[in-house]
């Protein structure tokens, strides 16, 4: 692992920009060759060809594709993502609506999955082939193999319709709608900022089920990886030595294993978090969650490329940013680089 | 929240408190109506632009038109009375104000109709078809005085047909003073009106968050008196099973866009009412007459005999449709009885042999991947297979299938239609008029042109009916049109009359689905739990 110097940082930032540009180009080309017809979506099925052509020209779709791309890039440099066909708003303002909803959901989900998944993986490795290990394996298998759509519906049937423990689909009960001034766009945070605890609890009751379901999916992966990382460390000489010196399982884990698998764990968590932030389309649809996954899907359906591109950029950027942060975390947490820095 | 009145917050807080105090199942408040549906296709709430069903349902509560249709008849809305003469119609407006406080005047009516034709999108198609264009609308539609509007006949229509068009959502009257403030780049305020409202209807648009919800609020200045519902919330619930759970839990009051299986659970269930709202439209099998096989009327007749209409009605269509092979609902005045088309493999094979294809052939069938059309496609594939026509189904999303339809790029395709007025012409015109079938005409907005079906005789008859002022004579032409249509073995074959099934919580009173999605909500009330 390389040490984090200024030139290394600059190299990484450049890397980020180039990756984003490639991502943009590919998305743009794919979007333009798709058979979706944004003009038809706007003018309607019965429009005559003249009206159709007029709208095509207004959207700039009559220009050659490379010209469209250049115009798009020029807009980007001015911070203008263009207008979404789907909503008529500027794409930037749509993103400010959709992204916080996804961000809130993904963040809660990754917290739950890390808090439950990592200890479960550690326990499974420490007590290999015990009941805990088998239990962890079943949990992971189920999480991996059952479709999220089914999970979502069944979760709603049980916890919302039958038991009435959680709020239903949507981010909040309808009569609370619009009562909290959006600051961050995340209802849990905004309601607390406004001192509206009642709204906070309501929003929490709505988010907890989709977040738990997403967390379960992510947890399956996190538990499995934690278990195998830990097993690998447990067979190392230093652990055997520690054990021989009389360290109990708890001390072995906290003082010896955890610091050594921290770096790998961070990678796993960052990947899981990135996947969640892409917007879990199916979960968002089942739970009528107005996040970026649903926004992107609907935009793609009608060929609304401005919206799709902006969403791709944001998701791509977040993904790369997470990678970037994980890399920095390596440098700080990895005992070898830490030593080298000293 | 800045835009919220304190009263409303207090009211909402009171509702919340009452719920937490009693701890009952959270139900929707008594003065708010919550509708669950799919808002994925709602792209605009500008009445002179949007024609999508869900958008129309919302806009018909934000705006008034001069007249409306009620039980298939024309009834007053903004116009309290009108006189018809040979040359046109003179409307007398009732006293009304827009939500902005501006009075509704003749100028607003003139501006709105001009706006429709000058924006010139699909929404203008029905007016253009009867001779109203961007370049003559200023001459034909005039303000006589602030409360009187004169609309001259274009020469291509009768007064009756014009009135029905004026009852459509696209003829909504917008607040011209308000809209003109928001014009940019000569767009007639379109960019602004897409996401705002400027009408005189019972509600005003409060908020529209795409893929989430539309909130409309009572307009206290509404001429008919403030509606009972303070707010109507239209929620985006794309999953049918989820909508069903929310209905059962009283989190939504009305659900449309439910799947057949979910609808079934509400039939006969206490506390819910299932409405089959007629649309006057059809599920259609479009055949491309430009295809070498389908150009032959014998082949088209063979196909008409290869579909198990009754069976499909029972197993697939259920609440969505009723067998009908003439593009006029059976209960319309002058509708003819259904022709004797039914599943008859022997007869269909004989017809194919006569046409010179005893061994059958292969076709593609394109459809939108949506209930019930996707199941319909599978059923058609099965029964056509039995007579030797091998069908390959290609499914897609709305926009690519429609683009293929417009470009004549298909063999078979399953579109759906709706009636814009509740009479023979309103439901049938799009099946019987194709003024120029040449490819160069590129008349992609025309339903028959897309099937490349050349029908000069029917087209002439349709034009004649549109101009016949005498009701009895017009009725005779209506009958002749339908008979000719059946005789010619249509390339646009109606399969089922189309219904929009909706489920309404029994607490909700006077929610009556309108055949053209113009369901008004001002009279809706809710019983307390």
List keywords for this structure.
heterodimer; A: 342 residues; mainly alpha; MetI-like fold; 15 helices; globular; B: 529 residues; alpha+beta; D-Maltodextrin-Binding Protein, domain 2; Dipeptide-binding Protein, domain 1; Dipeptide-binding Protein, domain 3; 3 domains; eleven-stranded mixed β-sheet; four-stranded antiparallel β-sheet; 19 helices; 19 strands; disordered N terminus; signal (chain B); transport (chain B); SBP_5_dom (chain B); plasmid (chain B); SBP_5 (chain B)
Largest sheet of chain B: 11 strands, mixed
β-strand percent of chain A reads under 5%
- Rg over C-alpha atoms of chain B, rounded to the nearest angstrom: 24 Å
Number of helices of chain A: 15
Largest sheet properties of chain A: none
**Beta strands of chain A, count:** 0
Number of helices of chain B: 19
Q: Which stretches of chain A are poorly predicted, pLDDT < 50 over at least 5 residues?
A: none
Mean pLDDT of chain B: 89
pLDDT averaged residue by residue of chain A: 83
> What is CATH's topology name of the largest domain in chain B?
Dipeptide-binding Protein, domain 3
N-to-C terminal Cα separation of chain B, in Å?
30 Å
CATH level 1 class label of chain A: Mainly Alpha
| Helix percentage of chain B | 25-40%
Structural class of chain A: mainly alpha
